[in-house]
Structures are given as structure tokens and as C-alpha cells.
Design brief:
about 400 residues; alpha/beta; Rossmann fold; seven-stranded mixed β-sheet; five-stranded mixed β-sheet; 13 helices; 12 strands; about 35% helix; elongated
Length: about 400
């Protein structure tokens, strides 16, 4: 193998390449593959690799493999194919002060040699974000306030090995994202979008944008939608509980999913998915009663929950709010308290039974009257309220909806 030596020197993040006389000699040692360096080079597709392998077998390895010491910095695929088919190759060596300088050279080399799409250019630059930030800070301290060397069009050509971060010495604070945008040839907004895609994009979205099937903007839209779905899913999960006790009276006002309602917009951050509500572990005695609130539009779901929790529907109470709300077919003015039982739970005594309709003006909370009637109808029982925002009194145990705002006192 013939080896050419080059010195790659620079000040801060400004690199100026000077060629030295070529010294040819034979080298039979194996080269080292640094995974960090290799990861900075976008991999070839299977088709591209197969075509390269065919070309190298037919024409030989005409382009030298770039090395730092004995470590490959460019030409990993050529080296792999050479070893596989016992092909000869040449190397060209560079002198760097640090691995960070090598990484920046690899980035510049890829920008000049391959027609990379915007996503891939930014991805590579973001991979070097700490290096770029550190080099840029160093450059700021070494440049005067009035002069920063600018790279010429000729220097910026494919054959040039000069690499200059375009930084103003007056820039304060350092905007690393802007630097990345400049050296990647994209807008500041594109860098932000690529960062979000890399952070939150699904494997499907990442695969599509790497194949070039979708643009950065389209991938960003998909990522934002996925991020929103994850946030909703996280906040709409039924809260677990660690209560070891069991109860005979269960009172529940589920935070229904907004999409199940016909009188609310889909903006409730405290709602819980219907599927999670059905799976909620209710700590009941074998003989128990359930009192479950439902809107008109969620009655079918409420009945399913009653069954899923092991109860059988018995009857209901209507709460007249004395004012109309919203609704698709009618303007809602009432809510329904469904009653179900399990085991051999006895109905209330006749002298404490109440009417099936109760009227009280709505003020945003369920009337305190219902707590009082539950205690009258089912005295000396163990009371549990699910998804509570406050405790009615010390006779009640509550399981809170952790995402809901707690109220200090009942109205």
C-alpha cells in the first residue's frame, strides 16, 4: 500500500490543509475501525453496497482510504470489501490534534462528497453538536471582534479540505443551533424540526424519512401527532391504587373521555380512556353497591363499566341541573347516577328511600346532597369514592384522580 501524509492543522474550528511531499512505502498492517467515526458516515443501502463491491472487484480500489494513525476515517466500505476479496488499496494519512478534529473533518468530507438530503445533513451535524459548540467557543476567543476569515467559493469546493465555522466573534450568547443550520445548509427551523423527529419520531417515521419517502416537514407533522397521542395516553390512564382495604359502598364520577361526550370539546387533560376505566381494580367486598355517574352520551359505556367491575345494574337517579348545557341532539340539563349491586347487598330501608329525581343548580361540582343520601340509605357501611378531588368527611376513603386539580372543600 502506498501512504501519503497530510498535516491537518487549524486554529480553533478553522482548519487549513497543507500538503506535504508524498512518501511511498509498503504497509501490510491491518487498519482499525473506530465505531464512533464510522457512525458519522451515512451507511450505504444494500443496493449501493452491492454496486460498490461489483465496481471494486472489476476496476480495483482507485480511491485511497483515509486514515489517522492506523484508524480509518474514510473508506470503511472499501476496506471491508478489500479484505473480503483480497484487493490491494492505498492509504492517505492525516495528522489531527484530537478526535474532535477528526469528527469535524469526517462531517465536512461527507458534506462535500455526497448529495445528502437535509435530514441526513442535520442529523450528522447534531451528532457533533457538543464538538461544534466547543470549537465555536474556542474560535470566538481567538478571533478579533472585527474580523473572521471567510471561506471562499473555491475553498468550499469539493476538492478543498478547508473547513471554517462561520462564527462572528461578537456573537453572544453562542447559538449552536444556528451554526448547525449554517454548516448544514438548512434553516434554523429545519434544525429544530429534525431534533424533534430524532427525539420523538416513531421507527416508521424515521425509516420513511431516511428512505426519502417523506420530507422533513411531513416527518415533523407525524412526530408532533405521535407526541400529542403519547401525552394524551399518559394523562388518560386510570390511576393505580395501593389500598389494601375493601369497601361495601363505591361512589364514582369517572373522568370520561371527551370524545365519548356530546357536550364537551376534546380538551379535558384529566380524562381517562374508557378501556382503562373498564380495567380499573375496584377494592370491594363480596356484597357491595356501586353508584356511578354518567352523562346521557356515556350511558352505554357506564353500563359496560358496571358489568366489568362485577356489579349488576339495578336503577338510577336523575340530577336536574336546572340549566341547559351543550349537546348534539338536545341541550343537556341532567346527569344520571346509576346504581348497581353485587353479591347479596340489601336495598335501603323504605323510610330512607329517595325520589328518582333531584333538582339543584349546577355549580361545577356534584351536589353535597348525594353524599348525605348515600350515608342515610346505606348507614354503617365502608365508603369509598373513586376519582375524587376532595374527601367529603372522615367516614370516606378516596382514590384520587392524580391529574385532576384538588378542591379544598366541597361546595
Amino acid at each position: 500500500m502506498a501512504k501519503n501524509n497530510k498535516n491537518f492543522k487549524g486554529s480553533g474550528a478553522d482548519f487549513f490543509l497543507t500538503l506535504e511531499p508524498t512518501t511511498a512505502f509498503t504497509d501490510t498492517s491491518d487498519l482499525i475501525v473506530n465505531p464512533t467515526f464510522q457512525s458519522l458516515i451515512p451507511p450505504l443501502t444494500e443496493e449501493e453496497y452491492a454496486q460498490l463491491e461489483e465496481n471494486l472487484q472489476e476496476n480495483g480500489i482507485r480511491e485511497a482510504i483515509s486514515i489517522w494513525g492506523n484508524t480509518i476515517i474514510d473508506g470503511h466500505n472499501r476496506y471491508e470489501i478489500a479484505k473480503k476479496h483480497n484487493l490491494t488499496y492505498a492509504t492517505v494519512a492525516y495528522d489531527f490534534d484530537s478526535e474532535d478534529d477528526v469528527k469535524l473533518w469526517i462531517f465536512k468530507n461527507q458534506m462535500g462528497r455526497r448529495n445528502l438530503p437535509p435530514f441526513e445533513r442535520v442529523r450528522l451535524a447534531l451528532h457533533l453538536k457538543p464538538v461544534i459548540a466547543e470549537k465555536a467557543k474556542l474560535q470566538q476567543t481567538r478571533k478579533s471582534a472585527d474580523f473572521v476569515p471567510q471561506i471562499s467559493a473555491e475553498q468550499n469546493s469539493q476538492d478543498s479540505d478547508d473547513f471554517v465555522l462561520q462564527i462572528s466573534a461578537k456573537q453572544n450568547p453562542m447559538d449552536t443551533r444556528k451554526i448547525i443550520a449554517d454548516i448544514s445548509g438548512v434553516s434554523h427551523d429545519t434544525v429544530s424540526k429534525v431534533e424533534k423527529i430524532l427525539e420523538m419520531g416513531t421507527p416508521e417515521t424515521l425509516e420513511k424519512i431516511k428512505r426519502g419517502d417523506i420530507t422533513v416537514n411531513k416527518a415533523y407533522q407525524e412526530t408532533r401527532t405521535h407526541e400529542k397521542d403519547v401525552a394524551i395516553s399518559d394523562s388518560h390512564t386510570a390511576p393505580p391504587h395501593t389500598i389494601a382495604d375493601t369497601f361495601s359502598v363505591i361512589y364514582a364520577d369517572p373522568p370520561w373521555e371527551s370524545k365519548l361526550l356530546d357536550d364537551e370539546n376534546d380538551t379535558n387533560p384529566h380524562s381517562i380512556k374508557f378501556a382503562d376505566l373498564k380495567k380499573f381494580d375496584v377494592p370491594t367486598l363480596d356484597d357491595a353497591v356501586l353508584l356511578l355517574w354518567s352523562h346521557s352520551s356515556t350511558l352505554d359505556k357506564a353500563l359496560q363499566i358496571i358489568n366489568a367491575w362485577g356489579f349488576k345494574y339495578q336503577t338510577s337517579i336523575i340530577w336536574d341541573k336546572q340549566q341547559t348545557g351543550q349537546g348534539q341532539y338536545v341541550l343537556g340539563q341532567h346527569e344520571t347516577l346509576l346504581i348497581g349491586t353485587k353479591g347479596n347487598f340489601n336495598p335501603p330501608a323504605e323510610d330512607v328511600r329517595i325520589g328518582s329525581v333531584y333538582s339543584e343548580n349546577c355549580d361545577g361540582t356534584k351536589p353535597k346532597w348525594f353524599y348525605e343520601q348515600i350515608e342515610r340509605m346505606f348507614p354503617n357501611e365502608k365508603y369509598l369514592e373513586l376519582f375524587a378531588s376532595y374527601k367529603h368527611n372522615d367516614r370516606w376513603t378516596i382514590i384520587e384522580n392524580p391529574s385532576a386539580k384538588k378542591e379544598a372543600n366541597a361546595k
